[in-house]
Write a structure and sequence with these properties.
Layout lengths: L4 E6 L8 H15 L3 E6 L15 H11 L3 E7 L7 H8 L8 E9 L4 H13 L2 E11 L4 E2 L2 E2 L5 H20 L3
Parallel strand pairs: 1-2, 1-3, 3-4, 4-5
Antiparallel strand pairs: 6-7
Length: about 180
């Protein structure tokens, strides 16, 4: 599966966001344990305008070109106000076919592990023709973070292995449709 490319999408653009250390944790794991190539996709790198504002489409074009390079994704999903962060909703709104027939997993975080946002994102992904896998890593703001930052509990390793196995298998299978 060395030719398989999986994007790790950080869902928020806020300063001091928790998605950055989570994405790095995921990337470190995949670099050491997986044959597929994983890369972090930071929404801050694209300067995406609000959906509908077509005054500067350079970021939109670059974001679509980047997403098109990947066979599957793992979303590092924050839960804001019981749903998906606005930055991710906006980014997805600027895409269409580049997400079609690809697989995705969700590593979410929040007060209750980001579960509510994950359910919302699964509905959005289905509309985008993205197959979301069953495995899910839910990180708690109360148990997986402390005053020194992100300290994931060991129990997440099993689900991390499951999610990467499923995203890679589904991404490989869906590649035949593109």
């Amino acid at each position: 599966m060395s030719n398989l490319k999986i994007g790790i999408i950080m869902s928020t653009t806020r300063p001091n966001r928790k998605s950055e250390p989570i994405a790095k944790w995921l990337k470190t794991y995949t670099d050491q344990n997986r044959d597929a190539v994983y890369d972090i996709i930071d929404l801050n790198d694209y300067n995406l305008p609000l959906f509908g504002d077509e005054s500067n489409m350079d970021g939109v074009k670059a974001f679509n070109e980047k997403i098109n390079q990947f066979d599957g994704f793992i979303f590092v999903l924050a839960e804001y106000n019981h749903t998906v962060p606005a930055a991710l909703t906006n980014a997805i709104s600027w895409t269409q076919e580049v997400f079609h027939n690809k697989a995705a997993g969700i590593v979410s975080y929040g007060a209750v592990g980001g579960a509510r946002a994950a359910e919302h994102l699964r509905n959005v992904l289905a509309q985008m023709h993205v197959a979301s896998v069953q495995a899910h890593v839910l990180l708690s703001l109360f148990h997986d973070f402390d005053e020194n930052g992100f300290k994931p509990l060991d129990i997440h390793q099993k689900n991390l292995n499951l999610i990467t196995n499923q995203v890679e298998a589904w991404s490989k299978a869906l590649k035949t449709l593109r």
